[in-house]
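Please check this today:
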Amino acid sequence: MSDTSEDDNEISFQVKFLGRVEVVRPDGLQILDEAVESLKVNKHSSEKAAKKSKVYLFLSLSGIDILENKTKFLLYTCPLSTISFCAILPSSPKVFGFVARHPAADMYHCYLFQSKTFVISRAGLSHRGCFQSFKEGGECEGRTRPDSGGTPTQG
């Protein structure tokens, strides 16, 4: 189930957060596969086990926010300019994730989620053209990517 704001600039979903894994590259399905395998191998880790919980995933033109389900506490925020890759895992269509650059360090993290419905892929498709335009330095509904030479947006 998703909620869309009045101006269609933000969509939210309730999903299961599988975890966040540091990765060596910023993109590719192989990175997604390796991150899932890393979570399986380290499933006894208390940090990763605690992360397997329901969260709200907010997608907007400024980025992605991950909020704890019950308290609405902000767990992670990823500005759109830091997100380099997102996909649904082909071997597990209910698992999806994205890779984002850490804002203060030279590293990347893969954020993994599970959804019972296909609504995530449809939302991704509706924002895909906008996301691609934004990542290529263009504009998306009046917003310019911060490093594209336009006026920086805060995210």
Observations:
- The chain is about 25% helix and 40% strand.
- Residues 22 and 109 are 4 Å apart (CA to CA).
- The domain at 2-136 is CATH 2.30.29.30 (PH-domain like).
- The chain has one domain: 2-136.
